[in-house]
C-alpha cells in the first residue's frame, strides 16, 4: 500500500481515533454486561392532554333497551285486470300532483331508488301474484318504555305491517303486537311478551335541551343491528312540513335508513328525541336528522298505551300566519298569533262566536306565536275541554269560551258558500291596488278579472278568478266599499288594508298597502 508522505500523519491520527472509539464502545458494552443493565433508550412520544369523556358508560346501560323492529305484510297480488302493480311499490303514483308533497315524501320518507332520502322505512317486498305469505316490507328501530314490554317506534315503520318481530340487543327475537298508532306525529306502540322484565328508558325534559348539547343515537341502520353514533343538537323547533305538529329537534349524529323509531339520548341516558326523518340528497347521512321531541312523544305514548289511539281537541277553524302587513292592517303591535281565514259551520269555534278575520292570540292565557303553536296547544287538550280563547277583533282583545270538539280522523276543509261567478261585461278598476274587478252574480263580493303584473296585489299572489269578499272585516259589494275601507285605513294611520279572498272554496287574507298622500 502506497501512502503519500504528506498524508501519513493524518491517516495515523484517523486510525488512532477509530481505535479509541472501539475501545470506548467495548468498555461501555463490558460495563453493561458487568452490571446487567440495558442501554438507555429515548422515551416514546406522549402528550399529557385533558381526556375527553366518552359515551361508553351511557351506551352500556341503554343498549339493552333499544331493539330492531322487523315488519312483515301480506303482499297484494296483481290487479284483477292482469296489470302488474309492482312498478309503483311505494304508492307514489297515487299521491296528489303536488310538487312539495311529493318532494317531502321522497326526501323524508325514503320512497324511490337507492338514492332516496329516508333513514328508516326500508322496503324489501314486491307484489307477488302467487305468494300470500307475509313478506318483509320494512325495518326500523324502537325502544322499551316499560319493564313489561311496551316499546315505541315510528308509525311509518309499522303502517303496512301485519306481523312484527322485535330483535333484542343480544339477538333474541320476540313476536310483538301493535297497540296503536298516531300518524299525525309518526309514532306507534308495540307490545312484546317475554319471561322476566325488560330494560327500559325514560323520557327527558326536552325543555332543558340546548342547542350544542351532546346526544347519542342508538338504532339499526341498514339492518346492521345495534349501532351507536354521537353528535350535538343542531337546532330546535324545526318545521319540515310533515304535519301540523312539527316541532322537531335537529341533530347532527349520523342517522340513516333503519334508524327510524330509534332513540336519541342525552348524557344521562334519557330519551330527548325519536329519530323520524333525515334530509339527504345522497340517501345517506349528511348530518341533518330530525327527532320527535320527548315532550311530544311522552304525551302521545301515554294515550296509545291507555287507549290505543290519541284523542285531540278540535277548534274547527282554518288559520294562516300573521305577516307584518297583516299586523299593520289590523293594528297589531307584532306578527304573533293565528289569523282565522274561516270558521267551519259545524265547528266549536264558530258556535262560540269566533269568526273569519279574528286573530287568535292566546289559549287559556298561553300566548299563540303562530298557527303551528295554536295547533299544538289545541291538540294537547282532550275533546270536551272548555278553554278561553283570546282574539283580536275590531282593534281590541276579546275572550270567548270554547268547548273543544274531537279532531276528525281526516282534516276537514272549511267550505265557503260563495261560488266563482262569470264576470259581467263591464268590469271596474281599483287603480291604486292594480286590480280590475266586477260584481259577482250573487251580489256578494267582487270578482278579480285582471291583475297588474307590476302591482303589490300580484306580488302577494292575487290572481284572476279570486273573489274579494271583505276589506278590513267590512263586506264589499262594489268598488265604492273598497275605496271607503282604504280611506278609513288612511285616516286611522294604517299603512295597509286586509283583504279577504275566496279561491277554490277556501278563504285567506292578503294585506295590501294603501296609497300614500
Q: Mind sketching the topology for me?
A:
Layout: H1 8-35, H2 56-62, E1 66-74, H3 99-108, E2 134-144, E3 150-153, H4 155-158, E4 163-167, E5 173-182, E6 187-192, E7 214-219, E8 227-238, E9 248-251, E10 263-265, E11 271-278, E12 289-293, H5 294-307, E13 313-314, E14 317-321, H6 324-330, E15 338-343, H7 348-352, E16 359-363, E17 366-367, H8 371-379, E18 386-393, E19 396-403, E20 405-406, E21 428-430, E22 435-439, E23 446-451, H9 456-459, E24 467-471, E25 474-475, H10 479-491, E26 496-503, E27 506-513
Antiparallel strand pairs: 1-2, 1-4, 2-3, 3-6, 4-5, 5-6, 7-8, 7-10, 8-9, 9-12, 10-11, 11-12, 13-20, 14-15, 15-16, 16-17, 16-18, 18-19, 21-22, 22-23, 23-24, 24-25, 24-26, 26-27
Brief summary:
The chain has 517 residues and is an alpha+beta fold. Helices cover 20% and strands 31% of the residues.
Description:
The longest helix has 28 residues. With 517 residues, the chain is of the alpha+beta class. Strands 21, 22, 23, 24, 25, 26 and 27 form a seven-stranded antiparallel sheet that branches. A six-stranded antiparallel β-barrel has the order 1-2-3-6-5-4. Strands 7-8-9-12-11-10 form a six-stranded antiparallel beta barrel. Strand 18 and strand 19 form a beta hairpin. It has ten helices and 27 strands. The N terminus is likely disordered. It folds into three domains: 243 residues, Beta Barrel (Thrombin, subunit H), CATH 2.40.10; 94 residues, Pdz3 Domain; 86 residues, PDZ domain (Pdz3 Domain), CATH 2.30.42. 20% of the residues lie in helices and 31% in strands.
